[in-house]
Specification:
- The protein has 134 residues and is an alpha/beta fold.
- It contains four helices and four strands, in the order βαβαβαβα.
- Strand 3, helix 3 and strand 4 form a beta-alpha-beta unit.
- The longest helix has 17 residues.
- 40% of the residues lie in helices and 17% in strands.
Length: 134
């Protein structure tokens, strides 16, 4: 299987404020820098485009036959445990033979927890600005 037969979907919640997607875009850019050959799409549950279905359809149109979906959520709640699988069932019906796997919520993975803990500990060393002075 070539690198272009595989795709990656970063699946996030979405928000009304377009700035919310900046972190998703930064993550996608970093992944592209680490693996320039990856076929990668962003997808959103609500408020933003594309949705999961459109993102996967676009990858399939590029010839992708194996997709890894990474839920870009801090933890696995209802969106990851129910909404995501429900959407994937409908997508599988439209794309027989497409192999889709889902990672655990990004924020629940040990390396991410370690990175977040490091940022929190580092915050203790930074100068403090009282909330009322911001």
């Amino acid at each position: 299987m070539s690198a272009r037969d595989q795709g990656l979907v970063l699946f996030g919640h979405g928000a009304r404020d377009p700035r919310w997607a900046d972190t998703m875009k930064a993550l996608a850019e970093r992944i592209g820098a680490l693996n320039p050959d990856v076929a990668l799409k962003l997808a959103y549950l609500e408020f933003m485009s594309p949705d999961l279905s459109a993102a996967i359809d676009a990858l399939v149109a590029q010839g992708v036959r194996t997709i890894v979906v990474v839920p870009v959520f801090l933890a696995a709640g209802g969106h990851v445990l129910r909404d995501l699988p429900d959407r994937l069932v409908a997508i599988a019906d439209r794309h027989p033979g497409l192999q889709v796997t889902v990672e655990s919520a990004l924020g629940s993975q040990a390396p991410v927890i370690d990175a977040m803990a490091g940022v929190c500990v580092d915050a203790l060393q930074r100068p403090k600005i009282p909330v009322d002075e911001r």
